[in-house]
Amino acid sequence: MSDRTLVQQAHRRILHMILEGDLKPGEILQEAALGERLEMSRTPVREALKRILSQGLAEVQGRFTRVRRINAEEVEEIFFLRLALEPNCAREAIQIDPDLLDAMEVRTIALMRQGPGDEDVEWHTDNEFHQMIALAAGNRATARLIANLHRRTAIFDHTLVPARFLKGWADHLDIIDALRHKDGPRAEKALRAHLEGARDAIFRRLEQTGIRQEPAA
Fold it and tell me: What letter would DSSP give residue 93?
């Protein structure tokens, strides 16, 4: 098993432990202890914890890295911002290079055919898709903000929300087709529906784990 595969496996297992409550908010994340628990060496665990930190699921407090409480309101705020920015970018991206669209379409179809597997390739393809549209809209500052927001919700990939795997990629193909036909309103509508579908699937997942609570009246 390659080093990269071990890191992916460690990351996925630690992520599940956090979301299922096996690792509780405030609990210290120690490489050695997690390595024993996962029956892995410290190296893949260390790299996995770096990802967990970058995704906002852990935080450094003094000398320790601790599990950070997942805040459903924070996820809602992230999608509020993405919905305010990305559909507008899709509407404005109709002058996008057709070669970029063709290349992204080929990559997307290949991922759909092979099914869930290489999480890094899937994440980078998804990220590049959203960046392709944001950059084509002509605002690099907005593109950087979208990249940061995307990173913070990318933890909810197909391993945690499996129903989104084929649906998410199919949404991408629909958006690509709208952009290829220079149909800005259709691209905007399709990207909005894509984000709303992802948001709703994440909230259903959070409800299953008891993390998302209904707001007080």
Answer: -
- Considering just the CA atoms, what is the radius of gyration of the chain in Å? 18
- Token pair, residue 188, equals 């905007």
Residues 116 and 165 sit within 8 Å (Cβ to Cβ): yes
pTM of the predicted structure, to 2 decimals: 0.79
**Which of 60, 56, 62, 46 shows the shortest CA–CA distance to 11?**
46
Alpha-helical regions (H) of 60-139? 72-92, 98-114, 119-136
Q: For the chain, which domains are there?
A: 3-67 (1.10.10.10), 72-208 (1.20.120.530)
- 66 touches 59 (CB < 8 A): yes
Q: What string of pLDDT tens digits covers the 217 residues of the chain?
A: 677 788 988 988 898 888 777 888 889 999 999 999 999 999 999 999 998 888 778 889 988 999 987 777 888 999 999 999 999 999 999 999 999 999 999 999 999 999 887 777 888 899 999 999 999 999 899 999 999 888 877 767 666 677 888 999 999 999 999 999 999 999 999 999 999 999 998 888 878 766 544 443 3
Residue matched to tokens 């970018």:
89
Length of the chain: 217
Cβ(71)–Cβ(60) below 8 Å: no
CB 134 within 8 A of CB 86: yes
Task: Please report, as a single letter, which amino acid is at residue 158.
Answer: H
How many CB atoms within 10 Å of residue 179? 27
Rounded Cα distance between 164 and 158, Å, is 6
